[in-house]
Amino acid sequence: MKKLIMICTVLVLAIGGCAWFFMKDNAEPVIARSVTATVEKGDLEVQISGSGSVAAINSEDITSSVTGEVDEVLAEKNELVEKGDELITFTDGSDPITAPFDGTVTTMDVEEGDRVSSSEVLAHVTDYKKLKTTISVDELDIPSVKKGQTVEIKASAFEDETFTGEVTSVAKEGTYENGVSSFDVTIKIDKPGDIKIGMSTEVSILTNSVKDALYVPIEAVQMDGEEKYVNIQQSGTTEGNASTKTMVETGISNDRYIEITSGLEEGQSVSLPITINESSTGSGGDGMRGGQGGEIRMPSGGMPSSGGMPSSGGMPSGKGGQ
Questions:
Q1: Residue 265: burial class (beta carbons within 10 Å; 0-12, 13-18, 19+)
Q2: Which stretches make up the YknX-like beta-barrel domain (predicted)?
Q3: End-to-end alpha carbon distance in the chain
Q4: Which of 26, 76, 301, 306 to pair with 286, CA 20 to 30 A apart?
Q5: CB 180 within 8 A of CB 124
């Protein structure tokens, strides 16, 4: 019996030892490493993005201002008309109904001899040459949106084209939903071209910009109480601990980059500390495994340890003014 117990004990210890050995080898210890980025100089932009759909700026029901009998109908459906053109006249000599703006008659619902009443809808006119798109902007971003700001517009039907526009109105009242208020922002499309009413759009509103700004990736700037600092990488080193803490002052920022107004010079290298798995460092891949298990990829063109940030300067992002 004692012999049997000893054999069982040995087997348990052996199995436990093997399990520990394999678990130890397969474990991926998380260690702190860092990559670096170069302090770049260029144009930094802050943009607010949103999606919407295309509508006509001018699209209006044509109503009768009198009660009477129609004498003549002077325009047909799908006919182009100019502002002031007579559309409908009356037998009693009342003022004729005229086109309120240049456009296309999309409906004409009366004929000669019909009797109409005041305020009755008789026709509809739409101007297909002047178009707009409306997006919804979060209450945290709406203070940055102003009438007259420049807008870039992408239409889903024209993926290779970028259209321009201008903010023409910002709603004075918001819509409250799920604990957040949002506000409608209307944008006039400068040259709609082949864009049609009802098409979907993606809009980027330029809310702020600085030319020839010094900037770094936003994660490079850290807080020490109420002060901001970066870790400047010492020349010729790549380890995260071979750096100097330097206080900085900042300006505008977007989701990717932040302006440095004081404390750094163009060309300096700053540390970007991240947490990665040790096993991922030898894979030679394009990205690094982050703390959430996903792949962390650098900005367009990659960000090697020597710096290598995009030269275009301050690539725009969805949310502004962080």
A1: exposed
A2: 135-205
A3: 73
A4: 26
A5: no
Structural contact between residues 284 and 295, judged by C-beta atoms closer than 8 angstroms: no
Task: Place 23 in a pLDDT band, splitting at 50, 70 and 90.
Answer: low
Contacts of 302 (CB under 8 A, 6+ apart): 286, 308
With b for 16 or more beta-carbon neighbours within 10 A and e for fewer, the 215-241 pattern comes to: bbbbebbeeeeeebbbbbbeeeeeebe
Instruction: Work out the mean pLDDT of the chain and round it to a whole number.
Output: 81
**234: pLDDT confidence band, cut at 50, 70 and 90?**
confident
Is 0.70 surpassed by the pTM of this model? no
Cβ–Cβ < 8 Å for 148, 130: no
Dig out the tokens for 275 from the structure: 């947490």
